[in-house]
Amino acid sequence: MKKIKDFFKKLNECTPKPAKVLFVLALISLILKIAFSLSPVFSDFYNRYPGAFFRMINAKLTGWFPFSLAETILMLMPLIVTVLVVMIIKVSKKTLRDMVKMMMSLLAALAFFFTSFTFTFAAGYSGTSLDEKLGISRQKVSADELYETAKILLDGISEVSGQIEFRYGSSSVMPYTLDEMNRLLQDAYIEASKDYSFLPAFRTRVKYVVMSEPMTYTHISGVYTYFTGESNINTNFPDYTLPYTAAHELAHQRGISKEDEANFIAFLVCLKSDDPYIRYSGFMSVYEYVISALYRADKDKYTALLSETDSRLRYEMIAYNDFFEKYRDNVAADISGTINDTYLASQGQKEGSRSYGMVVDLAVAYYKGK
């Protein structure tokens, strides 16, 4: 027993004070994670209030940087790893105490990421589902329901398509800058928060990835980085996808952790906008999810629907496929897909990357209830 006490005493002496603080916070985080898993009600409360506060502060602080801090850290990773390896080699030649001190510091860094995730984002995976929050009934959908939902979405697109500029025989054109798009989405989120009390009302900014073209090879159109609080988007993708993608990442920033739910909140928020292109982006993005599901369920109904679709929308989808062909099959996409699947599965989304497409169930349930 004395040996154990002596061991922990020496370990305590070798641990830097900042590391001790991070270890205590990590312990609190572990207790929180257990509480989240035991109580969806507590998860909802934490996500809406303490969690929202931490996410907002994080986003406001990193918002002072005109660039993506997360992307900068990623680009510096080779340098960071090299420096760490050199430091470890140097310390290994010193005393055991110095080596232990270095190891405890590295463990504290890992503890920081765990704490940051738990304090800001973890509760969203354990709370009540979005369909419960919206008061809709999510069930297995039929081909007929997919067809009817797609028709409703087409009607929505038709209402705004007359105000959209299309390149001849090609894609649509976003009529403003990315910064203006961000402002319009922030306005839409403020409006949405009035109807959906689980959405906190605050203004932030979307971050634009500088290395967007190389990022496209990973098939990643956007990413929310919880440790910096940034909603990052890949600006290399076609115009009509950008508002919806940005709204999706902003949904994560507001505590909607699950991918299908973030997709649907992005849709609802886009519809809250007065801007026709934002609305078009929302309608068009979910329409594509729905008709993809319809194609798998009933090819005849899919063909019939496509024959009724405005030729400008067909050109939009053809232009997207032409754009994406260059990036479709590559090792980077396989690796990023595997990493994303593993992460999502670890958070209870067993469908992995397929969970993004589960927005279809929510869309059908939403319009079925109207």
TrEMBL record:
<dbReference type="InterPro" id="IPR024294">
    <property type="entry name" value="DUF3810"/>
</dbReference>
<protein>
    <recommendedName>
        <fullName>DUF3810 domain-containing protein</fullName>
    </recommendedName>
</protein>
<keyword id="KW-0812">Transmembrane</keyword>
<keyword id="KW-1133">Transmembrane helix</keyword>
<feature type="transmembrane region" description="Helical">
    <location>
        <begin position="21"/>
        <end position="43"/>
    </location>
</feature>
<keyword id="KW-0472">Membrane</keyword>
<feature type="transmembrane region" description="Helical">
    <location>
        <begin position="63"/>
        <end position="91"/>
    </location>
</feature>
<dbReference type="Pfam" id="PF12725">
    <property type="entry name" value="DUF3810"/>
</dbReference>
<feature type="transmembrane region" description="Helical">
    <location>
        <begin position="103"/>
        <end position="125"/>
    </location>
</feature>
